[in-house]
Amino acid sequence: MDQFLPAIPLKGARVIVVGDGEAARAKLRLFAGAPCELVWRPAMKPVAPAPEFDEETGARILPGRFVPPGAFYRAKFVFIALDDEARAAHLAARARRAGALVNVVDNLALCDFYTPALVDRGAVTIALSTGGAAPVLVRDIRCALEGVIAPGVGLLASTANRLRDQVREALPTLDARRRFWETALRGEAAVRADAGDALGTALALSRALTGFRDGTPAPGQVFLVGAGPGDPELLTLKAVRVLRDADVVVHDRLVPEAILQRARRDARRIDVGKRRGQHSVPQEQIAAILIKEARKGLRVVRLKGGDSFIFGRGGEEAEAVRAAGIAVEVVPGISAALACAASAQIPLTHRDAAQAVTFVTGQPKKDGAELDYQSLASARHTLVIYMGVATAPELSAKLIAAGRGAGTPVAIIENGSLPEERAVSGTLADLPALITAHAITGPAVIVIGEVVARAPDMAAGLARQALLEDAA
Known about the structure:
Low-confidence stretches: none
Distance between the termini: 68 Å
CATH superfamily of the largest domain: Tetrapyrrole methylase, C-terminal domain
Structural class: alpha/beta
Helix content: 25-40%
Strand order of the largest sheet: 3-2-1-4-5
Shape: flat
CATH class of the largest domain: Alpha Beta
Oligomer: single chain
CATH topology of the largest domain: Methyltransferase, Cobalt-precorrin-4 Transmethylase, Domain 2
Mean pLDDT: 89
């Protein structure tokens, strides 16, 4: 560790910023709204009477180039943003003699400390620093954290702080208090805090304490979360937050380890993965697992590839959980159809090629109704088939028999969004042969329609195939 980032209380502290321009203003903005005395000493004498306070940050303004003796008295932090290095060094020395910690902008040699990049959530502050080595990198990391740190975490922390004495009195042991906070801070109170409901947050924590003390578990909840096509960066922010707070993760085979690692290390994983012709856990048992775990007062995430409500049987699971009297929330994911088509640059709709798009499954319910091939064979209509690799010969033959042109472009995208992604193109008549020739075995989406020819790589493949057919 090259540096240590302490947390220094700001309540009642005196913070002084010396200098002009955006560099000085950036330091002032850091402390806008903080419970400190913020003083700004612009280096240039104003041409007109200066206001007493800065409108943007609330800082008290003491203008003028001259910084009088005693100006740094009681200061905890002094920030100096001056182009004149000699003057900056002189003022820094004066500030240190007054007992302040000094930061001179863009001059590491004169700094007692570095200004970290901050994720500010009120009572919760996250500081990031490279010691001035790569500030742009720190900025990027901060932006990433801003997206995954819940907006209400500061309200949650401050509300929990006010409850600490009650918790200590109700739960005398450290272990009991730890278990209480692990449960309470991930439940209803967190939802209320994210909504900005201060009263609701306090009431939720109080109810959680009463239930924990009396041995009554808080009501559990099930979250049906779409994990997207596999790339962890395609998870929604809400999916990341819900997964991070889960006590139990019930997941499918198609969810990669890189996504499962977004869960807490102590979250229990239950693999209910299915394979064609081999259902390791029957659907009814999956629903029973969700209900059983939620009835323990746990937050249960049912994690599915793609979106749980598009050929994921999420609707059946939601119905079962609701029927058991357990709250269920759906967090949508990016469907494989959208992700695979986007990765291959295939527009699923296009004004010059397709007026509609239909998602169908290549594995209809056993003994269920057959696909309506007549409507699916319509011209200017994009067809996206999930789980269609094994049934491709039947799909191809029946679509052609229903009137879809044998030369209609098709694309097969295997392992979409993952490093091992492959995309091949051809015609509807050649669909089974394409799958065999390219040994398509992984999860794949089949796109049928004129839009396939709009993608640059697909168009090139179709052109090559046409030349081969003409030569033959």
